[in-house]
Each structure stands twice: as C-alpha cells, then as structure tokens.
User: Which sequence fits this backbone?
C-alpha cells in the first residue's frame, strides 16, 4: 500500500512520553535523559520526531518529567552556536543543528508522577482534544525507509477506532511485551495479514499463557475515546496505569463510541534501544547503513570480528549469530 504525507488529514498531533528515569542505562543517565543518548550522531528522540514529521504531523507534545530539560533545549534554537558555525562557514554542521528545531512544533507538559504509560498519555488530553492522535515511544526506532506510522494513520482513517503496531517475536520472549490475540481483517488495497482485528490485549503474559507471538511495539494511533477510558482505568501490572489495559477496554467497545482496535503487522526494520545490548546493536545497524560511514565502518567491523575469531579460537558465526 502506498501512502503519502499529503493523504494524512485526521491525525494532526503526536504524543511522545519521555518521563522515564532510564535506570537501565545508569550511570550514563544520571544527568542525561536516556532519550538524549546518541545513536550514531543524533539523540534517539530526534529519530522519533523525524518519523512523526515524515508522516505529515507537525504538532508534537512531549510528556516529560524532572531532569529532561536538555530535550527541550535540543528542539529549541541555539543562536550562539548557530552564529559561531555561520562565522566559520561550517554549513553542514549548521544545517544539522537547525534541523532538529525545524522538524515540528514541539510542546512540553510535565507528567508529575511516574504512574505509567497510560497516565502519560492521559496527560496529553488537553493538548490533543477530541481527535485521533499518534503515540510514539522512544525505545523503538523505525527505519525511515519503512512508513509504519503513515500506514497506521491510513488504517485508522479508514476503519476508525484505534490502531496498534504488532511485531512477530520469538514466543519465548513474548513475556517482555504486551501481547495481542487477533483475528483476520480484510482491508481493500492492503495485503492479507498486514492488518488484523485485535480481540484481546495482555500486558507481559507468562509464556504459557500468551494468546499469540504478536507483540505490541511502541507505535499507536488512538481514538480520543482512550482518554475517558484511561480516567477510569486503575493501576495494573507493576502498580501503574497501563495503556494496554485501556486498549483492551476499547477493543470491546462499539465503533460508534470510538471503540475497536486493529493492528498493523510490521515486517520492516526496527531498532530497539531499550537496553544496553539492543542499543549497541541499533548503533551498529544504523552506522553500517550510512552512506558516509557505512563502507569504512563495515570494513573495520569485519576485520574486528575476524580478529576476535582468531584471538578467541572460535567460529565467529557462533559468537555473532547475526553475521550468518
């Protein structure tokens, strides 16, 4: 299915929760928000805002907490730095610095208390109003060559309700995610199996209890009905207000009340920056794909892996399964 940003009309706003403490990356995140950790040469959060802008959305609300001021600074203009680069004639770096502040109109609201993802989304109610909106989590980076968000917006416009992104994962890992039980859905112009109807959502189920291996990843296009549902959703797993629980309620509500949940099954390129190992993999994958860095970095990386093979006396394919 081909879509363009010009086709996007109903979804005009995006909410990005960035209030988390980033404890898995301590001590690096003691004074630096995890969203500002560099992925090659841009902070992770910039990739997310670039994705939003690429889908034709200009209005972005970030739900922040204490110690997140550098995120606001990053999307603001820096006149002193820009002037210094301009005097030097460093046009390439000047353009890179200005790019982050030109991507979108970025607004900020404080969550106040860390009550969970559902509560963070609810904090966007006044800004969003009574219209469908996107929610993007910063731990999942979607390759710019894969128009996941654009497709999700198109599905929401055509079917109504809410739409979640789903990814097939190793069944042994499903306990790390929200999990969806689904049934087929037929949408004209979209390949069979790419869109499904969600019957049930379970937050981090035990492996033996999981209804499928379809994991909910950090992209949502939500009906504004989610706000009233979240208001009456009590704490769930981990003692937090879970967005998954609200979506489970929406899945059972009639369409005329903003209910119904569909899933877009994503088969493209996703980079998980949620923990240290996956973060390192994301940096390597994105660097290898860069035209300016990829050839030299790939050559060095290949030599490094072969060198480790000689040093350790083992098959690199066994130590580095992704190299197969």
Assistant:
């Amino acid at each position: 299915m081909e879509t363009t940003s010009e086709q996007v009309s109903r979804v005009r706003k995006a909410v990005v929760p960035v209030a988390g403490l980033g404890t898995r990356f301590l001590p690096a995140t003691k004074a630096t928000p995890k969203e500002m950790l560099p992925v090659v040469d841009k902070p992770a959060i910039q990739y997310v805002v670039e994705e939003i802008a690429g889908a034709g959305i200009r209005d972005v609300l970030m739900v922040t907490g204490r110690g997140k001021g550098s995120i606001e600074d990053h999307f603001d203009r820096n006149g002193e730095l820009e002037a210094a680069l301009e005097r030097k004639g460093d046009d390439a770096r000047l353009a890179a610095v200005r790019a982050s502040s030109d991507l979108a109109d970025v607004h900020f609201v404080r969550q106040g208390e860390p009550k969970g993802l559902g509560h963070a989304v609810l904090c966007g109610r006044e800004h969003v109003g009574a219209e469908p909106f996107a929610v993007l989590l910063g731990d999942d980076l979607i390759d710019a060559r894969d128009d996941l968000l654009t497709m999700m917006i198109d599905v929401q416009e055509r079917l109504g309700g809410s739409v979640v992104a789903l990814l097939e994962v190793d069944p042994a890992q499903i306990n790390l995610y929200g999990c969806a039980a689904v049934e087929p859905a037929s949408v004209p112009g979209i390949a069979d199996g790419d869109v499904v109807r969600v019957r049930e959502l379970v937050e981090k189920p035990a492996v033996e209890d999981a209804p499928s291996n379809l994991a909910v990843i950090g992209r949502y296009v939500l009906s504004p009905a989610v706000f009233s549902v979240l208001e009456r959703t009590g704490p769930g797993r981990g003692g937090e207000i879970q967005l998954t629980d609200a979506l489970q309620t929406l899945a059972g509500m009639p369409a005329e009340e903003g209910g119904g949940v569909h899933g877009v099954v994503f088969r493209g390129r996703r980079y998980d920056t949620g923990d240290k190992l996956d973060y390192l993999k994301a940096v390597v994958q994105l660097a290898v794909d860069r035209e300016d860095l990829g050839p030299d970095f790939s050559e060095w990386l290949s030599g490094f892996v072969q060198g480790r093979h000689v040093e350790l006396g083992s098959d690199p394919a066994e130590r580095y399964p992704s190299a197969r």
Notes: Confidence is low (pLDDT under 50) at residues 1-9. Residues 5-277 form a domain with the Spore Coat Polysaccharide Biosynthesis Protein SpsA; Chain A fold (CATH 3.90.550.10). DSSP finds twelve helices and 13 strands in the chain. The longest strand covers residues 195-203.
